[in-house]
Amino acid sequence: MIPAIELNHVSKVYSNGTVALHNMNLAIQDAEFVSLVGPSGCGKSTVLRIIAGLGQMNSGSIDWGVCDRKLAFVFQEAALMPWATVQDNVHLPLKLAGTSKKYADVLVQQAIQRVGLSGFERSYPRELSGGMKMRVSIARALVTKPNVLLMDEPFGALDEITRSKLNRDVLDLWSQHRWTVVFVTHNIYEAVYLSNRVIVMAARPGRVVADIAIDAPYPRNEEFRTSLLYNEYCREVSQCLMATMNEQPLLHIVGNDYSPSPQI
Ligand SMILES: Nc1ncnc2c1ncn2[C@@H]1O[C@H](COP(=O)(O)OP(=O)(O)OP(=O)(O)O)[C@@H](O)[C@H]1O
């Protein structure tokens, strides 16, 4: 099967010499829910930005197996326009795309309803909780009917209960729409709960160190969260993460270039 997104030997060095990614390979299948976890600075956001075309790679390539590719990005900050209502915020990408007002109104209403915010169309961001703002942000991503959803720690700033609720809602939406999802999180429990696969990355330079299939059926519910299987997967991911923390850097910077660290 041709992967929906395939990173081949992708490397990224920022202009200040930081080797954010080195020789990263990752194949994501159509309709897969894949989470990236790893220590701070290991390049998770860089991967998302490169997939989204928001950043250039220095070497390597991305192959796309998705026909009619439509990407949407959800950031950690809801980044809503404070002066605009919920419906106007959700309408923004359609306005930018020049979608007719009549069709856009239908899409906006559908997206707001999907994220459970019906009745709040005319509310302003200041009148919403953190979780509701994040729902608006998700609605704004969904309104364009994406087939690839890139989420960069979308629930990192939320309390645990709100995060759990949004996790369930995202899984419900995903089971209906079957987007290909690449989800960045620091939270092992969230990653295991949501994903078909958890990719563990290490830092300096950013690279994949483990690819763990979460072999548990969907729909996943509270029963799964309290199961032995879930706990075992969380422990496995956690152990991989701990192992990455104890590693020595593999690369060092030489001018604007980088090369393997000398073996000691
Ligand atoms: N624009 C930039 N210029 C220079 N270095 C950058 C830039 N953006 C990121 N970096 C560096 O690249 C590395 C990877 O950053 P990135 O944000 O992708 O990591 P991350 O795993 O998403 O981190 P976090 O979990 O803290 O959000 C880090 O060392 C970071 O300091």
From TrEMBL:
Boundaries of every ABC transporter domain copy: 5-228
GO terms, molecular function: ATP binding
Entry superkingdom: Bacteria
SMART domains cross-referenced by the UniProt entry: AAA
Protein location: Cell inner membrane
PROSITE patterns for this protein: ABC_TRANSPORTER_1, ABC_TRANSPORTER_2
Nucleotide-binding recorded as keyword: yes
A UniProt-annotated Pfam family: ABC_tran
UniProt entry tagged with the keyword Nucleotidyltransferase: no
Membrane topology label: Peripheral membrane protein
Alphabetized UniProt keyword annotations: ATP-binding, Nucleotide-binding, Transport
Family listed: Belongs to the ABC transporter superfamily. Nitrate/nitrite/cyanate uptake transporter (NitT) (TC 3.A.1.16) family.
Protein name in UniProt: ABC transporter ATP-binding protein
Originating organism: Gloeocapsopsis crepidinum LEGE 06123
Lineage: Bacteria, Bacillati, Cyanobacteriota, Cyanophyceae, Oscillatoriophycideae
